[in-house]
Each structure stands twice: as C-alpha cells, then as structure tokens.
C-alpha cells in the first residue's frame, strides 16, 4: 500500500470503555530504523509483519505520504535488530464510530498509561463521529509520535496531561 495518509490523533479518557466498544484487538511491536527525511518503521502485528516509510508532514501532522509493504516474519525479526532505541509495545483496539473506524493504542512498558486514538480520513475537511471516550486532539504534537515515544517515553512527562487521561 502506498499513498497519502490523512489522520487525526486524540487522547482517550481513562477507563476501559474503548475496550468494551472494540470489535478487534491485536498486539503490535514496532521499531524505527534511523533515516533522514522520513520515518522507517518495522512492525509486527500478531502474525504479520510490515515495512512502512512515512514522509514528514508539511501541514502540522495532519497528512503525509506513506508506503507500506508486507514482509516476512523472518525479515521483520532481522530488521527489528537495526531499530534504534528499542521497540514500542502496545495493543490496538478497533472501534467503529459512524462511517469510520478508530484505532486505539493502549501502550505498555515505559509508555504504559498512554492511550491514543487515530482516525484516517479521505480529506482534511471530512467530518466524523467521535466516540464518547475520545478526548482532546493531539494531531501534530510530536510528543505523541510513536517514534518520539522511544526517546521520550510517556512515563517521563505524563504528569503534564490533565488527570482524566492518566
């Protein structure tokens, strides 16, 4: 898959309402290979693996070019050894809301307690219905980029967020 990705990110209010609303859950481990001008990610999602390259955003994090290719588990195991700073470990829950599906990531390890939601859109103006547990928007806030969480884990700055999110 390749193309232009438009997504918005939100914090999820504490509690497990998102888990009860989910129709799917998967385990994700991902790491990042150092690259200038792009983000190169290796992801293992349950029993599948992917190589993803994303350009940097020019509109405050709302959209960017994305290339993704499925790779073998063996390739992923070798490539993940090239990743800098360890890996992100999380569970992803899928929640349907109106015509959209929200991907909700519940992080583990040094990022435990962080729960974020993303929704992909077909245009920057597209409207969508937010589930009740979706909170403040963090689109474009680099603190919430998965690649950034490796260097600056949530455990170091979680007290900067409102209590309803920690």
Automatic annotation (TrEMBL):
Residue ranges of every copy of the CYTH domain listed in the record: 3-151
Transmembrane segments: none
UniProt-listed CDD domains: CYTH-like_CthTTM-like_1 (cd07891)
Gene3D superfamilies per record: Hypothetical Protein Pfu-838710-001 (2.40.320.10)
PROSITE patterns per UniProt: CYTH
UniProt-recorded name of the protein: CYTH domain-containing protein
Protein's organism: Segatella bryantii (Prevotella bryantii)
């Amino acid at each position: 898959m390749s193309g232009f990705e438009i997504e918005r990110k939100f914090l999820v209010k504490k509690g497990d309402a998102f888990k009860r609303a989910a129709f799917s859950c998967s385990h994700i481990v991902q790491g990042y290979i150092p690259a200038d001008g792009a983000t190169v990610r290796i992801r293992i999602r349950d029993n599948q693996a992917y190589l993803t390259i994303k350009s940097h955003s020019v509109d405050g994090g709302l959209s960017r070019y994305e290339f993704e290719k499925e790779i073998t588990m063996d390739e992923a195991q070798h490539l993940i050894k090239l990743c800098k700073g360890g890996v992100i470990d999380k569970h992803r829950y899928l929640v349907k809301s109106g015509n959209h599906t929200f991907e909700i990531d519940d992080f583990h390890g040094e990022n435990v307690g962080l729960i974020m939601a993303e929704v992909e859109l077909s245009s920057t103006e597209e409207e969508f219905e937010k589930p009740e547990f979706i909170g403040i928007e963090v689109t474009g806030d680099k603190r919430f980029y998965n690649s950034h969480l490796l260097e600056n884990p949530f455990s170091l700055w979680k007290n900067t967020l409102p209590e309803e999110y920690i």
